[in-house]
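Slide 14.
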Amino acid sequence: METDADRLASIQALGGQLVHSSYASFWAIFDREFSLSPDGAVESRQPALQARASDVDGMPKDTVVRIGAESFKVKRHEPDGTGMTLVILRR
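Slide 15: predicted structure.
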């Protein structure tokens, strides 16, 4: 059974970064996943963080997070039921 410590080790081993916010500082994998609008007219990169649920549960929408020199706001959380959460970000 995977523990929270196992999840943290995985995040760090996979190139995770330390993320800072007024809510908490935590390790996460930063990604700009490709997204396409339903009509195919707009392409973009959706910034997101893959983090341990225990680190981000309760983080309010619109919390500003800093990843390196970039800042984003939390748009929503998408828990995956395994102890990890995808945090969708916006500028």
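Speaker note: The CA atoms of residues 57 and 77 lie 8 Å apart.
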